[in-house]
Amino acid sequence: MTGALIGRFLPPAQRRTLDELTADLDLTSGDTASKRSAFWSMLALSAVIASAGVLSDSTATVIGAMIIAPLSTPIMGIALGIAKQEAGAAARAGRFVVAGATLVVLIGVGFALALPGTFDLLGNSQISGRTSPGLLDLVAAIATGFAGAIALARRDVGAVLPGVAIAISLVPPLAVVGVCLGQGSMALALGALVLFLSNLLALVLAGTLVFTVVGYTGEAARDSDRSRRKAYLTLALLMVVIVIPLVGNTVGGYLVSVWTSRIQATAQDWISAVPGASVQDVDIVSNQAYVRVQTPRDLPPIDDLLGALEGQVPDGASIVVTTSVGERIDAGVVGG
């Protein structure tokens, strides 16, 4: 059954040999000078394009950076190295990934230094969309990893690789990390880094599974139960590393959504004492909730809002009310 399923996805007549795959994914074999020149030049240009696209909030520009970015090559090289159980192969590929990621982050920092200190990071959709990954991002990344690994292993579907490059976000999150670091926003930088790491590990996970099942193993590892167990243990550890932070982000996002709805409803009841007044929006940033209201008159007592929010949101949450005329009121802390 398993063999028939593998045959459907990877027909023997279309499978590339281990030597062919190694030649494409190993930057330390063959014509290394040409391979590394292409890798570093394309990666640097991709980082510049991604940083510019992120800061100009241009989706088309960011997609262009995704297409030309070669960072998936050494990442899939890690997967092949794990599957081959070849001493040092995964580590060599990993060094290119670390060095390449560092280069992209530094270029992003360089772009950030030219920005004004008042630049609104969360007001930019290219940044805000990459700083809070969740489980759905993981599902998409794993599916993309399988598509990429299968495309690499087959001779007849290489045309799908540009689509894989677009679907798996590698260079743009690193550019966002650099921009956020350059602006001094460590929390946002960490969120973008988690997205990159989850995508990286999803690629390695899917690639390792495909390459192992298909049989891209070195002679020393072939038919070795110990090597197989080691590869599967590696896969399990990768899955744990991927899932934990994304589950945390997903749960956190759900809780923020619940608290936002509760604050919105409670604030609307509070402001309804003023005819014609309404709540325009509620935003939660860290432990502060910003309630924007539109009112033709003075607001009701602010303590009434704080009292009504007790039990609705965690104690210690700070409430800030802003009005349509620009007045800002620090209401205080819930339960304080």
For the report, how would you describe the main beta sheet? Answer: 4 strands, mixed
Q: What proportion of the residues is helical, as a percent range?
A: 55-70%
Secondary-structure element string:
HHHHHHHHHHHHEEHEE
The 3D shape can be described as: elongated
Q: In DSSP terms, counting alpha (H) and pi (I) runs of 4 or more, how many helices?
A: 13
β-strand number: 4
Mean pLDDT: 83
Report strand %.
Answer: 5-15%
Q: What is the first-to-last residue Cα distance?
A: 63 Å
Radius of gyration: 25 Å
CATH third-level topology of the largest domain: Glycerol uptake facilitator protein
Strand order of the largest sheet: 1-2-3-4
| Oligomeric composition of the shown chains | single chain
Poorly predicted spans: none
Structural description of this entry:
With 336 residues, the chain is an alpha+beta fold. It folds into two domains: 2-222, Up-down Bundle (Glycerol uptake facilitator protein); 256-333. 63% of the residues lie in helices and 8% in strands. The protein has helices spanning 2-9, 18-25, 32-55, 59-68, 72-84, 89-112, 125-128, 135-153, 161-167, 171-182, 186-214, 225-271, 302-309, and strands spanning 278-285, 288-294, 318-323, 328-333. The protein has a four-stranded mixed β-sheet with strand order 1-2-3-4, covered by helices on one side. Strand 1 and strand 2 form a beta hairpin. Helix 5 (72-84) packs antiparallel against helix 6 (89-112). The protein is elongated and about 75 Å long. It starts with a helix and ends with a strand.
